[in-house]
Structure formats: structure tokens, C-alpha cells
Amino acid sequence: MASVLKYILGYKSTNTLIDPTYAEDDTSVSVAESVTAGAVCNSLCAEPGASSYFKGGITAYSIASKKEILGIDTKYAEKHNFANPFTTVEMAKAVTKLFKSRFGIATTGYSLPFHRPENKDREECELNIDVPYAYICLYDARTNEEITIKEEVPYDPNGSKAVQRANLQARIAILATKLYKEKVEKINNSKQ
Predict the structure, then answer these.
(1) By C-alpha distance, which of 115, 113, 114 is closest to 154?
(2) CA angle 174, 187, 107 (to 5 degrees)
(3) What is residue 55's three-state secondary structure?
(4) Per-residue pLDDT tens digits for 72-128
(5) For residues 109 and 172, is the Cβ–Cβ distance under 8 A?
(6) Among the listed ranges 33-37, 107-111, 123-127, 161-165, which one has the minimum average pLDDT value?
(7) Residue 10 pLDDT
(8) Could you give the CA distance from residue 55 to residue 68 in angstroms, rounded to a whole number?
(9) HSE on the CB side for 91, CA within 13 Å?
(10) In terms of C-beta density within 10 A (0-12 exposed, 13-18 middle, 19 or more buried), how is residue 115 classed?
(11) Is the pLDDT of residue 165 over 60?
(12) Which segments of the chain does DSSP mark as H helices, in order?
């Protein structure tokens, strides 16, 4: 449980161990999405030449896909709400292995308010999500650095749910893409 403490909002690791598998100028990226349902992949692939850095992505929306494809600890996630920083980091790490990319991006969250009572028999925690939010993790498999942030999006109970869901997905996709591009720019600037 102590390791979970390092996954606090805005955490940036300072681990200096370097994985020699990835070249310093390797900027390949892959994505594991939940709440954004493919929007991050779409955002990353919106530019010509994306195939030179984008390895692939998965929309792991269901609990089963998170467990079976990404190997996420679903017992922990159910007990502590799937949309948490720890699960998001684990998804980002898993997708780098799945696609053999240097960078992994993962998203979890709730695009609309959601309420669920605790179910001790199924080991599910109570959920009272009034403000939609998402966690985004950018993980660097070469340096083991992870950047995890939380973004909340205001909700209007009188507004269209479809529009508000799409708004959150687009905002998170743009923010995740920006995090990745800023990291790549930093890598490219360090070479000059």
C-alpha cells in the first residue's frame, strides 16, 4: 500500500534508472484508454506521419479488458474505484509492454456523474461521482518516469449528456496529447 502513496495527483517521479531497451531519441507511444474511449488515439493520429511514433492503442473500457489484456489488478481497482491514479499508471505501464513503445498514455475517469452503493459481497466500493473527472498518466518506460494528473470538468444537469461526455473526452484527449508532445519536445531540445 505504501507504493500507492507515490501516485498522488501531479506526482512526477525522479527515478534515474535508465532502461537501455529504448534509445534516448525514441518517442514511440501507445495508449490505453477507458473514459476517453479512443479520443486520445484519434488525437495522436490526427497529424500526417503519426505512424512514425504511434504504435497503437486499446480502449479497455470494461473491467474484463483491463484485467485480461492489460493485466490490471481488478480486485484493488474495484475496492478503490477504477478511476484512480494507481490503476491509470498501471494501465500506462502495461500498454508500453503490449505495444513495445517507450511512452504509454492511459486515461481513467467518469464522463458523467455516477452513483453506486457499496457491495461488500462483490467487493465494490461506494461511488459518489458528482463532478466528472479523468486521470491521465504519461509513462516513460526508458526512465520509469510517470506524470499523473487529474482533470475535473464541470457538469450541467440540464445540459445534454452526450455533449458533456464528448466534451470531457475531447478535453482529456487534447491534454494527454499535449503532455506527450511537450515531453517529446523536451527530448528533441536536449539533443541540440
Answers:
(1) 113
(2) 30
(3) strand
(4) 888 777 777 778 899 999 999 999 999 999 999 999 999 999 888 888 887 777 888
(5) yes
(6) 123-127
(7) 45
(8) 20
(9) 34
(10) exposed
(11) yes
(12) 39-44, 63-68, 74-80, 85-99, 161-190
Residues 130, 155: Cα–Cα separation, whole Å: 8
CB within 8 Å of 45: residues ≥ 6 apart: 54
Q: Which of 132, 138, 137 is nearest to 168 (CA)?
A: 132
Residue reference for cell 467487493? 123
Matching residue, cell 481488478 = 74
Mean of all residue pLDDT scores within the chain: 85
Q: What is the DSSP letter of 45?
A: T
Query: Which positions ≥6 away from 127 have C-beta within 8 Å?
Result: 81, 114, 115, 116
Contact between residue 118 and residue 42 where contact means Cβ atoms under 8 Å apart = no
In the chain, the domains with their CATH numbers are 11-186 (3.90.950.20)
Helix, strand or coil, per DSSP, at residue 152: strand
**Does the structure show a pLDDT above 50 at 4?**
no
Q: Are 44 and 54 in contact (CB under 8 A)?
A: yes
pLDDT score for 3: 37
